[in-house]
């Protein structure tokens, strides 16, 4: 029995071995030995983050040349170097990316989402159609935790995911499974170059801000006391927070959703607070830049648009060189915008932070004279960004309009403190309704002049900010609304006065259309200077070839260079344009936004050759984000910003009118923000201040 | 009807893992995530079918006629191990995508007692060849069902506030016990 057993087993084993041996011969698969070597380098997480079904598939792809040595998302630089050594190639720079969740929870407007039994953000999609990925929409399912192969994500007690930045390998699994899009993978280039799309979850303020600043996120970071984080969030979209924090007319505040409940959040004040926090701390926040990609970009003009474009390009790894006609950088921010609105030392500090990133500036170089598009191309610049601004004030075009002492607003403002350091006893008449006109009025009044302004519309219709007009009036200036100049009165070619007449709308109540002159209303007044500030336009004469043809197609509406609105590309493919040279007279933050938009275009242009279209760009405020009514539990009074007295303003020139607020106030104001999503908001915002005497529950207020 | 009852019986009433307690180690080892569980379950169904298809004739035409039935266990192990090796080679050559997606599971099955268990059980129950195959397939499905259920529970447990001493395998074993009790409720429904 033993013998037969042994025999049977031996025979069976022998047959099996024979079959397997034969099979291994027949079924043998030739494999490159390097595949095993490469596979050995991987940490073996089999996470699939690389886009291949597993580590062995990834190794095969590397050997076949379908993937680069840095393919593994779980491995660091060492692993990539080892693989590169096996393959005999070099490791390319790979930008680190991490997962992040921006949902802060809170009791959100649940009822709004109650749709056919779905009581969370997914109802939003059902209600409003189309898919919305919402960074504020975490519903605490924890799917992200389950799929993370690196234990990098966990849920807090209130069910919100937190990512461990050090453990995250950006495999992207979490973002893939998140049903609401609350977790997403992002890297610097992506963050810096993303333009808002309709399917992003956008708070109203973020939609209205020309630069698309993520207001709710930085305000929330401020609330938590994370000023550094808040500044970084801001700098993702605005490299000039100090200047913008002082000059922006804050269109975002007009649409802040809290307006529906009580008063909107003082977004602009908080913006300035964060920016000042950095400057006052004396040290600069260090910003990361990608290593140089080798692509050179020329930027013409060092105003806000040029600086902004240079900043974004440098951070994503390119090498921008700014060419500036004047001998100082900063455009209108430097020497034109009056000191009491934007002090020069603030501008210097701010501009320096951009130069520190490695942006080169060549001053005293004029486009069209010292350099041309051709020369720049020959020098190796792959793209050119035109940001020369709008410095030309159209001439007055009336009798004696070119007399001595009829000046344009820009020359006047540039001369403040130099040629014009004392204007006591002088009479100055300003013509125009622009912010620049108000700057002239306020500067001249501060220098002791008696000022008057001829404004061709009513106050509500002025293009200057409401605040600016009020401030000009506070200084005792005579603002003559609904008037226009008829002729300049000159003696021996020098201004001595101005004749003007009244205007009236066809329908004075509605004040629509263009006002018409009122017969027989001519009057005159004395003037030592007449300052023209009716408009500012781009000087397009410099954009001509030697034979005198226009280099670029011009925009009939603005008089500036015509560009594609999303890519900022001009009619010459490698030349981009933005800022006032494209839009005409506009606000600072618009120029910053244009710079960023152009940087996106240029980045794709120099790296890929074509600029991907944005599938669903957000171009106007999305209607469903404006809720009709809201239930907010707590009211907190809006912060009051300190201002220096009118008397003080008359005597000093340097002082800034608005002061800054203090840390605790800033945090309390931040707690008023409802951290809105597209259709949701945190109705409990401000609960942490419930005990304060000025905070009430709405139904008790 | 007979086959249907056999299917119900093998899948639910005599579930291979939860009632027969076979294949408990892969049951614990590969039930952390549903994706993996489905992969493992499908691989097991495939190998159980193959193994039964090979061992049944071996039993009937070799072991039984020559009176060496006592060698059953060792012979079956040998056959299953070789079979799995062969299948692995074959898949690698013929269907590489399937081979890649099965990956780790194929070698794991070599040591899976559920496969051997089913091969032996069909002999004990003296099923015909076709019945044996139906039984094997149903047992595999039973394994897959149990694995998917527990992996779903474990995914939820991962983020549930479980006391730290119970985290991981201990709580999984407790869950398996409870599931087992639940499956016992099927007893008496059919054979
Ligand atoms: S957190 Fe997400 S992206 Fe980061 S390692 Fe985990 S699964 Fe991958
Ligand atoms: S409440 Fe906050 S998030 Fe909402 S619109 Fe106002 S500032 Fe933006």
Quick structural overview:
Chain A is of the alpha/beta class.
Structure, described:
The complex is a heterodimer of chains A (701) and B (191). With 701 residues, chain A is an alpha/beta fold. In chain A, 33% of the residues lie in helices and 13% in strands. A five-stranded parallel beta sheet of chain A has the order 7-6-5-8-18. The longest helix of chain A has 25 residues, at 2-26. Chain A starts with a helix and ends with a strand. The model of chain A is unreliable at 109-116 and 129-133 (pLDDT under 50). Chain B has 191 residues and is mainly α. Chain B is globular, with a radius of gyration of 17 Å. Classes of the chains: A alpha/beta (701), B mainly alpha (191). At the A-B interface, helix 1 and helix 7 of A face helix 4, helix 5 and helix 8 of B. One iron/sulfur cluster binds next to helix 8 of chain A.
SSE layout and pairing:
The complex is a heterodimer of chains A (701) and B (191).
Chain A: H1 2-26, H2 33-41, H3 55-64, H4 77-87, E1 97-101, H5 110-113, H6 122-128, H7 143-147, E2 153-155, E3 161-163, H8 173-177, E4 183-187, H9 188-193, H10 204-208, H11 215-223, H12 227-235, H13 241-247, H14 251-255, H15 258-261, H16 267-281, E5 296-300, H17 304-316, E6 319-324, H18 344-355, E7 360-363, H19 373-378, E8 381-386, E9 406-408, H20 409-415, E10 427-431, H21 435-446, E11 450-455, H22 466-474, E12 478-481, E13 483-491, E14 494-504, E15 516-517, E16 523-526, E17 529-532, E18 575-577, H23 580-583, H24 588-608, E19 634-635, H25 646-651, H26 663-670, E20 696-697
Parallel strand pairs in A: 5-6, 5-8, 6-7, 8-18, 9-17, 10-11, 10-17, 11-12
Antiparallel strand pairs in A: 1-4, 2-3, 13-14, 14-15, 14-16, 19-20
Helix pairs in contact in A: 2-3, 2-4, 11-12, 11-26, 12-16, 13-16, 16-26, 17-24, 20-21, 21-22
Chain B: H1 2-13, H2 24-29, H3 34-63, H4 72-94, H5 96-102, H6 105-110, H7 113-124, H8 129-159, H9 169-184
Bound molecules: iron/sulfur cluster (2 copies).
């Amino acid at each position: 029995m033993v013998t037969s057993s042994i025999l049977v087993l031996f025979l069976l084993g022998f047959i099996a071995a024979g079959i397997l041996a034969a099979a291994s011969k027949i079924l043998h698969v030739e494999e490159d030995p390097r595949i095993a070597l490469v596979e050995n380098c991987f940490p073996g997480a089999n996470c699939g983050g690389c886009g291949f079904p597993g580590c062995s598939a990834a190794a095969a792809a590397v050997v076949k040349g379908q993937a680069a040595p840095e393919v593994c998302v779980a491995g660091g630089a060492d692993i990539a170097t080892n693989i590169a050594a096996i393959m005999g190639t070099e490791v390319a720079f790979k930008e680190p990316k991490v997962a992040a969740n921006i949902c802060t929870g809170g009791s959100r407007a649940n009822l709004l989402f109650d749709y056919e039994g779905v009581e969370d953000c997914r109802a939003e999609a059902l209600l409003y159609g189309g898919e919305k990925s919402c960074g504020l929409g975490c519903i605490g399912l924890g799917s992200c935790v389950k799929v993370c192969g690196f234990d990098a994500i966990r849920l807090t007690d209130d069910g919100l995911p937190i990512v461990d930045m050090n453990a995250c390998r950006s495999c992207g699994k979490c973002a893939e499974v998140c049903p609401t899009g609350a977790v997403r993978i992002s890297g610097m280039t992506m963050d810096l170059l993303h333009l808002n799309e309709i399917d992003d979850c956008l708070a109203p303020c973020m939609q209205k801000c020309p630069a698309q600043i993520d207001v709710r996120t930085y305000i929330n970071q401020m609330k938590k006391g994370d000023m550094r984080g808040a500044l970084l969030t801001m700098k993702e979209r605005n490299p000039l927070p100090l200047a913008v924090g002082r000059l922006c007319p804050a269109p975002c505040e007009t649409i802040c959703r809290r307006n529906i409940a009580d008063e909107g959040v003082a977004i602009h004040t908080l913006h300035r607070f964060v920016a000042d926090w950095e400057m006052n701390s004396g040290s600069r926040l260090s910003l990361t830049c990608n290593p140089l990609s080798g692509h050179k970009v020329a930027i013409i003009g060092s105003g806000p648009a040029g600086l902004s474009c240079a900043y974004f390009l440098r951070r994503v790894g390119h090498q921008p060189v700014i060419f500036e006609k004047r001998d100082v950088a900063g455009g209108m921010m430097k020497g034109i915008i009056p000191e009491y609105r934007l002090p020069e030392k603030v501008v210097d500090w701010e501009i320096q932070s951009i130069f520190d990133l490695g942006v080169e500036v060549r001053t005293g170089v004029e486009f069209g004279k010292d350099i041309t598009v051709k020369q720049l191309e020959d020098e190796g610049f792959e793209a050119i960004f035109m940001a020369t601004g709008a410095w030309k004030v159209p001439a007055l075009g009336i009798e004696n309009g070119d007399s001595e002492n009829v000046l344009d607003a820009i020359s006047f403002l540039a001369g403040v403190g130099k040629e014009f350091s004392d204007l006591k006893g002088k009479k100055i008449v300003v013509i125009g309704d622009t912010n620049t006109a108000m700057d002239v009025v306020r500067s001249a009044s501060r220098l002791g002049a008696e000022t008057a302004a001829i404004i061709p519309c009513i106050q509500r219709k002025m293009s200057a900010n409401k605040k600016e007009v009020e401030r000009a009036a506070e200084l005792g200036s005579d603002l003559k609304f609904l008037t226009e100049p008829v002729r300049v009165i000159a003696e021996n070619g020098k201004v001595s006065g101005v004749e003007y007449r009244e205007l009236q709308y066809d329908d004075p109540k509605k004040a629509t259309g263009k006002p018409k002159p009122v017969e027989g209303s001519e009057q005159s007044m004395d003037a030592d200077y007449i300052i023209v500030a009716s408009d500012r336009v781009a000087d397009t004469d410099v954009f001509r070839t030697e034979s005198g043809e226009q280099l670029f197609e011009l925009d009939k509406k603005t008089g500036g260079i015509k560009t594609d609105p999303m890519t900022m590309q001009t009619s010459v493919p490698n030349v981009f344009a933005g800022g006032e040279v494209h839009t005409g007279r506009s606000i600072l933050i618009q120029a910053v936004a244009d710079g960023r938009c152009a940087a996106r275009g240029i980045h794709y242009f120099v790296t890929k050759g074509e600029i991907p279209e944005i599938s669903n760009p957000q171009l106007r405020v999305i209607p469903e984000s404006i809720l009709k009514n809201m239930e907010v539990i707590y009211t907190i009074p809006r912060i009051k910003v300190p201002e220096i007295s009118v008397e003080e303003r008359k005597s000093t020139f340097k002082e800034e009118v608005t002061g800054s607020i203090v840390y605790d106030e800033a945090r309390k104001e931040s707690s008023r923000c409802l951290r809105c999503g597209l259709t949701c908001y945190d109705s409990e915002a401000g609960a942490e201040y419930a005990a304060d005497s000025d905070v009430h529950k709405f139904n008790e207020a | 009807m007979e086959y249907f009852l056999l299917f119900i019986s093998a899948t639910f009433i005599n579930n291979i893992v939860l009632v027969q307690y076979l294949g408990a180690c892969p049951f614990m080892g590969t039930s952390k995530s549903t994706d993996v569980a489905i992969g493992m379950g499908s691989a097991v169904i495939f190998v159980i079918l193959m193994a039964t298809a090979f061992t049944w004739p071996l039993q009937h035409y070799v072991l039984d006629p020559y009176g060496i039935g006592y060698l059953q266990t060792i012979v079956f192990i040998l056959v299953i191990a070789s079979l799995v090796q062969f299948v692995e080679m074959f898949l690698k050559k013929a269907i590489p995508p399937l081979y890649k997606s099965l990956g780790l599971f194929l070698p794991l099955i070599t040591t899976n007692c559920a496969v051997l268990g089913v091969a032996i059980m069909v002999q004990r129950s003296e099923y015909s060849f076709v019945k044996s195959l139906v039984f094997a397939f149903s047992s595999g499905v039973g394994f897959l069902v149990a694995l998917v259920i527990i992996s779903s529970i474990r995914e939820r447990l991962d983020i549930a506030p479980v006391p730290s001493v119970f985290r991981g395998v201990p709580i999984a074993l407790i869950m398996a016990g409870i599931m087992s009790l639940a499956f016992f409720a099927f007893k008496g429904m059919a054979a």
